[in-house]
Write a structure and sequence with these properties.
The chain has about 575 residues and is an alpha+beta fold. It has three domains: about 50 residues; about 290 residues; about 220 residues, no CATH class. The chain contains twelve helices and 28 strands. The strands form six sheets. Strands 1, 2, 3, 4, 5, 6, 7, 23 and 28 form a nine-stranded mixed sheet that branches. Strands 12-13-14-21-18-17-16 form a seven-stranded antiparallel sheet. A five-stranded antiparallel sheet has the order 11-10-15-20-19, with no helix packed on it. Helix 10 runs antiparallel to helix 11. The longest helix has about 50 residues.
Length: about 575
Protein backbone atom coordinates (compact mmCIF):
# COMPACT_ATOMS: atom_id res chain seq x y z
CA UNK A 1 0.00 0.00 0.00
CA UNK A 2 1.02 3.59 -0.15
CA UNK A 3 1.65 3.66 3.65
CA UNK A 4 3.81 0.55 3.44
CA UNK A 5 5.85 2.11 0.65
CA UNK A 6 6.54 5.16 2.81
CA UNK A 7 7.52 3.04 5.79
CA UNK A 8 9.95 0.71 4.01
CA UNK A 9 12.65 3.18 2.94
CA UNK A 10 12.90 4.58 6.47
CA UNK A 11 12.92 1.20 8.17
CA UNK A 12 15.26 -0.36 5.64
CA UNK A 13 17.64 2.53 6.10
CA UNK A 14 17.72 1.89 9.87
CA UNK A 15 18.26 -1.84 9.34
CA UNK A 16 21.09 -1.28 6.90
CA UNK A 17 22.79 1.13 9.31
CA UNK A 18 22.42 -1.38 12.16
CA UNK A 19 23.83 -4.17 10.04
CA UNK A 20 26.71 -1.96 8.98
CA UNK A 21 27.49 -1.05 12.60
CA UNK A 22 27.31 -4.71 13.60
CA UNK A 23 29.69 -5.58 10.78
CA UNK A 24 32.16 -2.91 11.90
CA UNK A 25 32.01 -4.27 15.46
CA UNK A 26 32.68 -7.82 14.27
CA UNK A 27 35.58 -6.61 12.16
CA UNK A 28 37.02 -4.75 15.16
CA UNK A 29 36.77 -7.86 17.35
CA UNK A 30 38.38 -9.96 14.64
CA UNK A 31 41.21 -7.43 14.37
CA UNK A 32 41.87 -7.59 18.12
CA UNK A 33 41.88 -11.41 18.08
CA UNK A 34 44.21 -11.36 15.07
CA UNK A 35 46.66 -9.00 16.76
CA UNK A 36 46.68 -11.00 20.00
CA UNK A 37 47.33 -14.32 18.27
CA UNK A 38 49.44 -13.05 15.38
CA UNK A 39 52.83 -13.92 16.84
CA UNK A 40 51.78 -17.44 17.83
CA UNK A 41 50.02 -18.06 14.49
CA UNK A 42 53.00 -16.81 12.53
CA UNK A 43 55.30 -19.09 14.50
CA UNK A 44 53.05 -22.08 13.85
CA UNK A 45 52.73 -21.27 10.11
CA UNK A 46 56.47 -20.80 9.68
CA UNK A 47 57.07 -23.90 11.78
CA UNK A 48 54.90 -26.11 9.58
CA UNK A 49 56.22 -24.56 6.36
CA UNK A 50 59.74 -25.41 7.45
CA UNK A 51 58.65 -28.79 8.74
CA UNK A 52 57.66 -29.80 5.21
CA UNK A 53 61.29 -29.33 4.18
CA UNK A 54 62.60 -31.39 7.11
CA UNK A 55 63.96 -34.91 7.05
CA UNK A 56 61.26 -37.60 6.98
CA UNK A 57 61.71 -41.31 6.35
CA UNK A 58 58.86 -43.77 5.83
CA UNK A 59 60.86 -46.91 6.67
CA UNK A 60 60.01 -48.47 10.04
CA UNK A 61 62.88 -49.09 12.50
CA UNK A 62 62.90 -50.60 15.97
CA UNK A 63 64.77 -47.55 17.28
CA UNK A 64 66.86 -44.66 16.04
CA UNK A 65 69.93 -46.74 16.77
CA UNK A 66 69.07 -49.03 13.82
CA UNK A 67 69.34 -46.14 11.36
CA UNK A 68 72.49 -46.17 9.25
CA UNK A 69 75.36 -44.11 10.69
CA UNK A 70 75.78 -40.84 8.85
CA UNK A 71 72.06 -40.44 8.20
CA UNK A 72 70.54 -37.03 8.78
CA UNK A 73 68.80 -36.15 12.00
CA UNK A 74 65.05 -35.84 11.59
CA UNK A 75 61.71 -37.56 11.93
CA UNK A 76 61.71 -41.32 11.49
CA UNK A 77 59.15 -44.05 12.14
CA UNK A 78 59.93 -46.64 14.81
CA UNK A 79 58.18 -49.67 16.31
CA UNK A 80 60.04 -50.81 19.47
CA UNK A 81 57.54 -53.59 20.16
CA UNK A 82 55.89 -55.84 17.60
CA UNK A 83 52.67 -55.62 19.61
CA UNK A 84 52.49 -51.83 19.33
CA UNK A 85 51.75 -49.56 16.38
CA UNK A 86 54.55 -47.68 14.60
CA UNK A 87 54.93 -43.99 15.48
CA UNK A 88 57.08 -41.05 14.47
CA UNK A 89 59.96 -39.76 16.58
CA UNK A 90 62.82 -37.31 16.26
CA UNK A 91 66.17 -39.10 15.84
CA UNK A 92 69.44 -37.35 16.61
CA UNK A 93 72.07 -38.89 14.37
CA UNK A 94 75.05 -36.61 14.97
CA UNK A 95 75.80 -36.10 18.66
CA UNK A 96 77.58 -38.69 20.83
CA UNK A 97 77.64 -41.37 18.15
CA UNK A 98 74.08 -40.76 16.93
CA UNK A 99 71.17 -43.15 17.22
CA UNK A 100 69.40 -41.17 19.98
CA UNK A 101 65.60 -41.34 20.23
CA UNK A 102 63.83 -38.26 21.59
CA UNK A 103 61.30 -39.66 24.07
CA UNK A 104 60.04 -36.60 25.99
CA UNK A 105 60.10 -32.83 26.40
CA UNK A 106 59.34 -30.83 29.54
CA UNK A 107 57.94 -27.37 28.95
CA UNK A 108 56.57 -24.69 31.31
CA UNK A 109 53.62 -22.89 29.74
CA UNK A 110 52.92 -20.64 32.75
CA UNK A 111 55.41 -20.37 35.61
CA UNK A 112 52.78 -18.65 37.77
CA UNK A 113 50.14 -21.32 37.13
CA UNK A 114 50.64 -23.89 39.86
CA UNK A 115 49.54 -27.39 38.77
CA UNK A 116 47.24 -25.96 36.10
CA UNK A 117 46.41 -26.94 32.51
CA UNK A 118 49.61 -27.76 30.64
CA UNK A 119 51.52 -29.03 33.70
CA UNK A 120 51.58 -32.63 32.48
CA UNK A 121 54.83 -33.43 34.29
CA UNK A 122 53.37 -32.47 37.69
CA UNK A 123 49.57 -32.18 37.85
CA UNK A 124 46.82 -30.48 35.88
CA UNK A 125 44.30 -31.12 38.65
CA UNK A 126 45.07 -28.14 40.86
CA UNK A 127 46.69 -28.38 44.26
CA UNK A 128 45.72 -30.22 47.41
CA UNK A 129 46.61 -29.92 51.07
CA UNK A 130 46.30 -33.66 51.65
CA UNK A 131 46.29 -35.45 48.26
CA UNK A 132 49.96 -35.16 47.37
CA UNK A 133 49.72 -37.05 44.10
CA UNK A 134 51.17 -36.25 40.69
CA UNK A 135 49.92 -36.80 37.17
CA UNK A 136 51.86 -40.07 37.27
CA UNK A 137 53.30 -39.33 33.85
CA UNK A 138 56.87 -39.95 34.94
CA UNK A 139 56.00 -43.55 35.78
CA UNK A 140 52.95 -44.49 33.70
CA UNK A 141 52.22 -45.42 30.08
CA UNK A 142 50.43 -42.21 29.06
CA UNK A 143 51.51 -40.47 25.88
CA UNK A 144 50.80 -36.85 24.99
CA UNK A 145 51.87 -34.05 22.70
CA UNK A 146 53.19 -34.32 19.17
CA UNK A 147 56.67 -34.67 17.75
CA UNK A 148 55.94 -31.71 15.45
CA UNK A 149 55.23 -29.36 18.38
CA UNK A 150 57.47 -30.75 21.11
CA UNK A 151 58.94 -27.33 21.93
CA UNK A 152 55.47 -25.76 22.14
CA UNK A 153 54.00 -28.15 24.71
CA UNK A 154 54.82 -31.13 26.92
CA UNK A 155 55.57 -34.27 24.96
CA UNK A 156 55.95 -37.97 25.72
CA UNK A 157 55.90 -40.82 23.20
CA UNK A 158 55.69 -44.59 23.53
CA UNK A 159 59.48 -44.97 23.33
CA UNK A 160 59.63 -43.52 26.86
CA UNK A 161 58.26 -46.81 28.20
CA UNK A 162 58.73 -49.31 25.34
CA UNK A 163 62.26 -48.69 24.07
CA UNK A 164 64.99 -50.44 26.07
CA UNK A 165 68.05 -48.24 26.43
CA UNK A 166 71.28 -47.82 28.37
CA UNK A 167 71.92 -44.06 28.41
CA UNK A 168 70.19 -40.69 28.28
CA UNK A 169 70.95 -37.36 26.63
CA UNK A 170 69.38 -33.98 27.40
CA UNK A 171 69.19 -30.69 25.53
CA UNK A 172 68.02 -27.28 26.74
CA UNK A 173 66.23 -25.53 23.85
CA UNK A 174 64.21 -22.30 23.77
CA UNK A 175 60.46 -22.79 23.44
CA UNK A 176 58.93 -22.73 19.94
CA UNK A 177 62.19 -23.73 18.26
CA UNK A 178 61.51 -25.60 14.96
CA UNK A 179 62.68 -29.21 14.78
CA UNK A 180 65.31 -28.55 12.14
CA UNK A 181 66.99 -25.97 14.41
CA UNK A 182 66.92 -27.94 17.68
CA UNK A 183 70.51 -29.12 17.52
CA UNK A 184 71.91 -25.82 16.29
CA UNK A 185 70.36 -23.57 18.96
CA UNK A 186 70.44 -25.85 22.02
CA UNK A 187 72.09 -23.99 24.90
CA UNK A 188 73.20 -27.14 26.71
CA UNK A 189 73.73 -30.70 25.53
CA UNK A 190 74.99 -33.48 27.79
CA UNK A 191 74.75 -37.27 27.91
CA UNK A 192 75.65 -40.35 29.93
CA UNK A 193 77.97 -43.06 28.62
CA UNK A 194 78.10 -45.43 31.60
CA UNK A 195 75.05 -47.56 30.68
CA UNK A 196 73.44 -46.67 34.03
CA UNK A 197 69.91 -47.19 32.73
CA UNK A 198 70.49 -50.94 32.49
CA UNK A 199 70.49 -51.06 36.29
CA UNK A 200 67.15 -49.26 36.54
CA UNK A 201 64.83 -51.18 34.25
CA UNK A 202 66.21 -49.98 30.88
CA UNK A 203 63.50 -47.32 30.40
CA UNK A 204 62.71 -44.05 32.14
CA UNK A 205 59.25 -45.35 32.89
CA UNK A 206 60.73 -48.31 34.78
CA UNK A 207 63.27 -46.12 36.55
CA UNK A 208 60.55 -43.93 38.03
CA UNK A 209 57.99 -46.66 38.58
CA UNK A 210 60.27 -49.20 40.24
CA UNK A 211 63.20 -47.24 41.68
CA UNK A 212 62.32 -43.56 42.15
CA UNK A 213 58.53 -43.05 42.24
CA UNK A 214 57.35 -39.45 42.37
CA UNK A 215 55.47 -39.39 45.65
CA UNK A 216 56.15 -38.02 49.15
CA UNK A 217 59.19 -39.39 50.93
CA UNK A 218 58.92 -42.58 52.94
CA UNK A 219 59.13 -41.71 56.63
CA UNK A 220 61.75 -43.97 58.13
CA UNK A 221 61.07 -42.95 61.73
CA UNK A 222 57.33 -43.72 61.57
CA UNK A 223 57.56 -47.37 62.72
CA UNK A 224 59.20 -46.23 65.96
CA UNK A 225 56.61 -43.50 66.51
CA UNK A 226 53.82 -46.02 65.94
CA UNK A 227 55.36 -48.36 68.51
CA UNK A 228 55.69 -45.54 71.05
CA UNK A 229 52.10 -44.48 70.45
CA UNK A 230 50.88 -48.07 70.90
CA UNK A 231 52.61 -48.09 74.30
CA UNK A 232 51.32 -44.66 75.31
CA UNK A 233 49.15 -45.90 78.18
CA UNK A 234 51.97 -47.96 79.62
CA UNK A 235 54.47 -45.10 79.33
CA UNK A 236 52.26 -42.44 80.91
CA UNK A 237 51.37 -44.81 83.76
CA UNK A 238 55.01 -44.60 84.84
CA UNK A 239 54.36 -41.01 85.97
CA UNK A 240 52.03 -40.83 89.00
CA UNK A 241 49.01 -38.58 88.45
CA UNK A 242 49.88 -38.14 84.79
CA UNK A 243 48.36 -34.97 83.33
CA UNK A 244 46.96 -35.40 79.81
CA UNK A 245 47.45 -32.01 78.20
CA UNK A 246 45.52 -30.86 75.11
CA UNK A 247 47.06 -30.21 71.71
CA UNK A 248 46.09 -27.00 69.96
CA UNK A 249 46.91 -26.74 66.26
CA UNK A 250 50.22 -27.84 64.82
CA UNK A 251 52.70 -26.33 67.25
CA UNK A 252 50.96 -25.69 70.55
CA UNK A 253 49.77 -27.32 73.76
CA UNK A 254 46.71 -25.68 75.30
CA UNK A 255 45.54 -25.57 78.90
CA UNK A 256 41.99 -26.72 79.57
CA UNK A 257 40.46 -26.18 82.98
CA UNK A 258 43.87 -26.04 84.66
CA UNK A 259 46.81 -23.80 83.87
CA UNK A 260 49.77 -25.39 82.08
CA UNK A 261 51.07 -22.86 79.54
CA UNK A 262 50.07 -19.28 78.89
CA UNK A 263 51.60 -19.78 75.45
CA UNK A 264 52.90 -22.70 73.42
CA UNK A 265 55.28 -25.62 73.41
CA UNK A 266 57.23 -24.57 70.29
CA UNK A 267 60.07 -26.74 69.05
CA UNK A 268 62.72 -25.88 66.48
CA UNK A 269 65.91 -27.51 65.20
CA UNK A 270 69.15 -26.40 63.63
CA UNK A 271 72.30 -27.95 62.28
CA UNK A 272 75.27 -26.78 64.34
CA UNK A 273 76.11 -23.26 63.23
CA UNK A 274 72.87 -22.83 61.29
CA UNK A 275 69.56 -21.09 61.91
CA UNK A 276 66.54 -22.60 63.62
CA UNK A 277 63.59 -24.03 61.68
CA UNK A 278 60.23 -24.62 63.36
CA UNK A 279 59.10 -28.22 63.71
CA UNK A 280 55.36 -28.49 63.09
CA UNK A 281 53.68 -31.34 64.91
CA UNK A 282 53.31 -34.52 62.83
CA UNK A 283 55.25 -33.01 59.91
CA UNK A 284 58.50 -34.79 59.09
CA UNK A 285 61.60 -32.81 58.22
CA UNK A 286 64.41 -34.37 56.19
CA UNK A 287 68.12 -33.54 55.98
CA UNK A 288 69.07 -35.93 53.18
CA UNK A 289 72.74 -35.06 53.02
CA UNK A 290 73.03 -36.08 56.68
CA UNK A 291 70.71 -39.14 56.60
CA UNK A 292 68.63 -37.37 59.23
CA UNK A 293 64.88 -37.27 59.80
CA UNK A 294 63.16 -35.07 62.39
CA UNK A 295 59.57 -35.16 63.63
CA UNK A 296 57.46 -33.84 66.50
CA UNK A 297 54.51 -36.08 67.32
CA UNK A 298 51.32 -35.19 69.19
CA UNK A 299 51.14 -38.51 71.00
CA UNK A 300 51.39 -38.97 74.78
CA UNK A 301 53.84 -38.01 76.04
CA UNK A 302 54.66 -35.34 73.44
CA UNK A 303 57.94 -36.14 71.74
CA UNK A 304 60.23 -34.40 69.26
CA UNK A 305 62.79 -36.80 67.88
CA UNK A 306 65.57 -36.96 65.30
CA UNK A 307 67.20 -40.02 63.82
CA UNK A 308 70.76 -38.96 62.99
CA UNK A 309 72.33 -41.36 60.50
CA UNK A 310 75.20 -39.11 59.36
CA UNK A 311 76.85 -41.81 57.25
CA UNK A 312 79.13 -39.22 55.61
CA UNK A 313 80.06 -37.78 59.02
CA UNK A 314 79.36 -34.31 57.66
CA UNK A 315 76.97 -33.31 60.48
CA UNK A 316 78.88 -31.98 63.48
CA UNK A 317 75.79 -31.72 65.65
CA UNK A 318 72.08 -30.97 65.95
CA UNK A 319 70.28 -28.67 68.39
CA UNK A 320 66.70 -28.53 69.62
CA UNK A 321 65.26 -25.29 70.93
CA UNK A 322 62.06 -25.45 72.98
CA UNK A 323 60.21 -22.28 73.92
CA UNK A 324 57.61 -22.35 76.68
CA UNK A 325 55.77 -19.63 78.57
CA UNK A 326 54.83 -21.11 81.93
CA UNK A 327 52.88 -18.01 82.85
CA UNK A 328 53.81 -15.09 85.11
CA UNK A 329 55.62 -16.95 87.89
CA UNK A 330 52.54 -18.97 88.82
CA UNK A 331 54.75 -21.91 89.75
CA UNK A 332 56.88 -21.63 92.81
CA UNK A 333 59.87 -23.86 92.12
CA UNK A 334 62.24 -25.18 89.49
CA UNK A 335 64.88 -27.88 89.51
CA UNK A 336 67.35 -29.48 87.11
CA UNK A 337 68.38 -33.11 86.78
CA UNK A 338 71.92 -32.95 85.45
CA UNK A 339 73.08 -35.44 82.85
CA UNK A 340 72.23 -39.02 83.80
CA UNK A 341 73.21 -42.28 82.05
CA UNK A 342 70.96 -45.33 81.53
CA UNK A 343 71.74 -48.80 80.13
CA UNK A 344 69.04 -51.27 79.03
CA UNK A 345 69.20 -54.21 76.58
CA UNK A 346 72.36 -53.16 74.70
CA UNK A 347 71.01 -49.60 74.57
CA UNK A 348 72.59 -46.57 76.22
CA UNK A 349 70.91 -43.24 76.94
CA UNK A 350 71.89 -39.92 78.47
CA UNK A 351 69.36 -37.31 79.57
CA UNK A 352 68.98 -33.94 81.24
CA UNK A 353 65.68 -32.57 82.59
CA UNK A 354 64.15 -29.36 83.91
CA UNK A 355 61.16 -29.22 86.30
CA UNK A 356 58.79 -26.33 86.98
CA UNK A 357 56.29 -27.16 89.73
CA UNK A 358 54.65 -26.26 93.04
CA UNK A 359 51.64 -24.06 92.21
CA UNK A 360 48.66 -25.81 93.77
CA UNK A 361 46.01 -26.62 91.20
CA UNK A 362 48.25 -26.32 88.15
CA UNK A 363 50.07 -29.24 86.50
CA UNK A 364 53.83 -29.47 86.75
CA UNK A 365 56.08 -29.35 83.69
CA UNK A 366 59.13 -31.53 83.09
CA UNK A 367 61.19 -31.08 79.92
CA UNK A 368 63.49 -34.00 79.18
CA UNK A 369 66.30 -33.90 76.58
CA UNK A 370 67.98 -37.18 75.70
CA UNK A 371 69.83 -39.31 73.21
CA UNK A 372 69.74 -43.09 72.74
CA UNK A 373 72.22 -45.28 70.89
CA UNK A 374 73.56 -48.81 70.62
CA UNK A 375 76.88 -49.98 69.26
CA UNK A 376 75.59 -53.52 68.88
CA UNK A 377 72.10 -52.87 67.50
CA UNK A 378 72.66 -49.69 65.47
CA UNK A 379 76.45 -49.38 65.12
CA UNK A 380 76.12 -46.03 66.87
CA UNK A 381 78.88 -43.48 67.20
CA UNK A 382 77.90 -41.63 70.36
CA UNK A 383 77.98 -37.85 70.76
CA UNK A 384 80.88 -36.41 72.68
CA UNK A 385 78.37 -34.48 74.80
CA UNK A 386 74.75 -33.65 75.43
CA UNK A 387 75.50 -29.98 74.97
CA UNK A 388 73.51 -27.36 76.93
CA UNK A 389 73.68 -24.08 75.04
CA UNK A 390 70.85 -22.33 76.88
CA UNK A 391 69.08 -23.41 80.07
CA UNK A 392 66.23 -21.83 82.09
CA UNK A 393 66.73 -19.84 85.26
CA UNK A 394 63.14 -18.70 85.97
CA UNK A 395 59.75 -20.30 86.52
CA UNK A 396 57.83 -17.94 84.22
CA UNK A 397 59.25 -18.81 80.80
CA UNK A 398 62.05 -20.73 79.17
CA UNK A 399 63.87 -20.94 75.88
CA UNK A 400 66.08 -23.98 76.13
CA UNK A 401 68.72 -25.01 73.60
CA UNK A 402 70.20 -28.48 73.95
CA UNK A 403 72.10 -30.47 71.35
CA UNK A 404 74.32 -33.40 70.51
CA UNK A 405 77.83 -32.73 69.20
CA UNK A 406 80.85 -34.67 68.00
CA UNK A 407 79.66 -35.95 64.58
CA UNK A 408 77.32 -38.61 66.04
CA UNK A 409 76.08 -41.49 63.89
CA UNK A 410 73.04 -43.76 64.12
CA UNK A 411 71.48 -42.31 67.26
CA UNK A 412 68.12 -40.95 68.39
CA UNK A 413 68.10 -37.43 69.80
CA UNK A 414 64.91 -36.24 71.43
CA UNK A 415 62.83 -34.05 73.70
CA UNK A 416 59.84 -35.33 75.69
CA UNK A 417 57.32 -33.39 77.79
CA UNK A 418 56.13 -34.98 81.05
CA UNK A 419 53.55 -33.55 83.45
CA UNK A 420 51.76 -34.33 86.73
CA UNK A 421 48.30 -33.04 87.55
CA UNK A 422 49.00 -32.58 91.28
CA UNK A 423 51.65 -29.87 90.70
CA UNK A 424 54.42 -32.07 92.15
CA UNK A 425 57.75 -32.42 90.35
CA UNK A 426 58.28 -35.38 88.06
CA UNK A 427 60.97 -37.37 89.85
CA UNK A 428 64.28 -38.44 88.34
CA UNK A 429 63.16 -42.04 88.90
CA UNK A 430 60.01 -41.43 86.81
CA UNK A 431 62.04 -39.77 84.05
CA UNK A 432 64.41 -42.75 84.03
CA UNK A 433 61.53 -45.23 83.84
CA UNK A 434 59.99 -43.43 80.86
CA UNK A 435 63.29 -43.36 78.98
CA UNK A 436 64.05 -46.99 79.78
CA UNK A 437 60.69 -47.92 78.27
CA UNK A 438 61.66 -45.94 75.16
CA UNK A 439 64.95 -47.84 75.04
CA UNK A 440 63.21 -51.23 75.21
CA UNK A 441 60.89 -50.27 72.36
CA UNK A 442 63.72 -48.76 70.29
CA UNK A 443 65.96 -51.83 70.67
CA UNK A 444 64.18 -53.61 67.81
CA UNK A 445 63.92 -50.50 65.61
CA UNK A 446 65.95 -50.33 62.40
CA UNK A 447 65.94 -47.08 60.50
CA UNK A 448 65.40 -47.44 56.75
CA UNK A 449 65.89 -44.39 54.54
CA UNK A 450 64.74 -45.41 51.04
CA UNK A 451 64.62 -41.88 49.66
CA UNK A 452 68.07 -41.74 48.10
CA UNK A 453 68.26 -40.25 44.59
CA UNK A 454 69.58 -41.89 41.45
CA UNK A 455 72.60 -39.90 40.29
CA UNK A 456 74.75 -40.45 37.21
CA UNK A 457 77.64 -38.51 35.74
CA UNK A 458 77.07 -36.63 32.47
CA UNK A 459 79.47 -35.36 29.79
CA UNK A 460 78.83 -32.05 28.04
CA UNK A 461 78.64 -31.77 24.27
CA UNK A 462 77.69 -28.08 24.39
CA UNK A 463 78.11 -25.79 27.35
CA UNK A 464 80.04 -26.86 30.43
CA UNK A 465 79.48 -27.31 34.17
CA UNK A 466 80.52 -23.74 34.96
CA UNK A 467 78.04 -22.25 32.49
CA UNK A 468 75.26 -24.46 33.82
CA UNK A 469 76.15 -23.48 37.39
CA UNK A 470 75.74 -19.83 36.35
CA UNK A 471 72.02 -20.50 35.73
CA UNK A 472 71.48 -21.64 39.34
CA UNK A 473 70.04 -19.16 41.91
CA UNK A 474 72.86 -17.73 44.01
CA UNK A 475 71.59 -19.06 47.33
CA UNK A 476 71.51 -22.62 45.99
CA UNK A 477 74.90 -22.86 44.27
CA UNK A 478 76.66 -24.20 47.34
CA UNK A 479 74.30 -27.19 47.21
CA UNK A 480 74.77 -27.95 43.50
CA UNK A 481 77.39 -30.00 41.69
CA UNK A 482 77.11 -29.64 37.87
CA UNK A 483 78.08 -32.42 35.50
CA UNK A 484 75.50 -34.96 36.65
CA UNK A 485 71.88 -35.93 36.12
CA UNK A 486 69.82 -36.62 39.23
CA UNK A 487 66.54 -38.51 39.16
CA UNK A 488 64.31 -37.43 42.05
CA UNK A 489 65.13 -34.93 44.78
CA UNK A 490 63.16 -34.33 47.98
CA UNK A 491 62.83 -31.07 49.85
CA UNK A 492 62.95 -30.70 53.64
CA UNK A 493 59.26 -31.61 53.95
CA UNK A 494 59.54 -34.78 51.87
CA UNK A 495 58.00 -33.48 48.63
CA UNK A 496 59.74 -34.65 45.45
CA UNK A 497 60.92 -33.16 42.22
CA UNK A 498 61.45 -35.65 39.43
CA UNK A 499 64.55 -34.51 37.55
CA UNK A 500 67.56 -32.28 38.17
CA UNK A 501 68.92 -31.73 34.64
CA UNK A 502 72.68 -31.32 34.37
CA UNK A 503 73.55 -31.40 38.09
CA UNK A 504 73.12 -33.19 41.39
CA UNK A 505 71.96 -31.41 44.53
CA UNK A 506 71.61 -31.86 48.27
CA UNK A 507 69.54 -28.69 48.64
CA UNK A 508 66.53 -28.81 50.95
CA UNK A 509 64.82 -26.55 48.36
CA UNK A 510 65.21 -28.52 45.10
CA UNK A 511 61.97 -26.97 43.77
CA UNK A 512 64.11 -23.92 42.90
CA UNK A 513 66.36 -26.07 40.72
CA UNK A 514 64.69 -29.22 39.44
CA UNK A 515 61.58 -30.04 37.38
CA UNK A 516 58.42 -32.09 37.78
CA UNK A 517 56.55 -32.48 41.03
CA UNK A 518 53.31 -33.29 42.81
CA UNK A 519 50.13 -31.56 43.91
CA UNK A 520 50.54 -29.50 47.04
CA UNK A 521 47.73 -27.15 48.07
CA UNK A 522 45.19 -24.63 46.74
CA UNK A 523 44.94 -21.00 47.78
CA UNK A 524 41.60 -21.80 49.46
CA UNK A 525 43.21 -24.56 51.50
CA UNK A 526 46.05 -22.23 52.41
CA UNK A 527 43.81 -19.57 53.95
CA UNK A 528 42.54 -22.19 56.37
CA UNK A 529 45.97 -23.38 57.49
CA UNK A 530 48.19 -20.34 57.12
CA UNK A 531 48.41 -19.57 60.81
CA UNK A 532 49.01 -23.24 61.54
CA UNK A 533 51.66 -24.10 58.96
CA UNK A 534 52.99 -20.73 57.83
CA UNK A 535 56.11 -20.91 55.69
CA UNK A 536 55.83 -24.66 55.12
CA UNK A 537 52.79 -24.29 52.89
CA UNK A 538 53.92 -21.09 51.22
CA UNK A 539 56.81 -23.20 49.98
CA UNK A 540 54.46 -26.01 49.03
CA UNK A 541 52.47 -23.65 46.81
CA UNK A 542 55.58 -22.56 44.95
CA UNK A 543 56.66 -26.16 44.40
CA UNK A 544 53.65 -27.14 42.30
CA UNK A 545 54.15 -27.07 38.51
CA UNK A 546 56.38 -28.48 35.78
CA UNK A 547 59.18 -26.03 36.56
CA UNK A 548 58.13 -26.16 40.20
CA UNK A 549 59.55 -23.28 42.22
CA UNK A 550 61.78 -21.69 39.58
CA UNK A 551 59.92 -18.47 40.34
CA UNK A 552 59.66 -17.45 43.99
CA UNK A 553 57.84 -14.34 45.18
CA UNK A 554 60.66 -11.99 44.23
CA UNK A 555 61.01 -10.37 40.76
CA UNK A 556 62.68 -12.44 38.05
CA UNK A 557 65.49 -11.29 35.75
CA UNK A 558 65.34 -11.90 32.01
CA UNK A 559 68.84 -13.25 31.42
CA UNK A 560 70.31 -14.22 34.78
CA UNK A 561 69.17 -15.79 38.06
CA UNK A 562 68.51 -13.98 41.32
CA UNK A 563 69.19 -15.26 44.81
CA UNK A 564 66.13 -17.55 44.66
CA UNK A 565 64.80 -17.47 41.06
CA UNK A 566 65.84 -18.89 37.73
CA UNK A 567 66.06 -16.44 34.80
CA UNK A 568 63.03 -15.87 32.59
CA UNK A 569 65.06 -17.12 29.62
CA UNK A 570 65.59 -20.44 31.40
CA UNK A 571 61.88 -20.67 32.24
CA UNK A 572 61.20 -20.16 28.52
CA UNK A 573 63.20 -23.30 27.72
CA UNK A 574 62.15 -26.87 26.96
CA UNK A 575 64.21 -29.77 28.28
CA UNK A 576 64.44 -32.54 25.70
CA UNK A 577 65.17 -36.11 26.81
CA UNK A 578 66.70 -38.73 24.52
CA UNK A 579 67.57 -42.36 25.20
CA UNK A 580 69.84 -44.85 23.43
Amino acid sequence: TKGDTAWCPNMCDVLWKALAAFGVMLAFIALIVTIISQKYRQNIIIYYQRLTEFQFNAKVYRSCREISPGSKSGIYTIQPKASSLPFQVYCEMGDAGGGWTLVASIHENNIFGKCTIGDKWSSEQGNSLTDHASSGNWQNNNIFGSVSTLTFQDYKNAAYMDLNASNVMMWHVRNQTPLQRLSKVAKFKYFTNNNFLRRYGKTLRNLYNDFAPIKPAVKGINPLLSALNASSSNITSLVDNWYRYNYHGQRAIHFSGVYMFSSVNQVAYRVTGGTFSTIYYNQDHFLYDHDTEIVASSIYPFIAMAWIGNSKRNLEGLDFMVWLDHGENRREYQSTYTTQTLNVANMTAKFRAHNVFGDIGDPSICEVYFYIGSRRNWNSRFPTALSVRQWPSATSSASNIVGVVGWPQNILFGYVLLSRSDSRAVTVHQVSNVLMEYMKIAASFRFVFPNTPIVTRASFIRGNPALLNATIPYMERQFVDPGYIQFRAFNAYGFPNALCPGFKTNSVRPERLCVGGIKTYTSDDYRGVQSMYGYTYRRMKRQCGDFAGWSQRHPMNQTGPTATNRALNDVDTAILIFTK
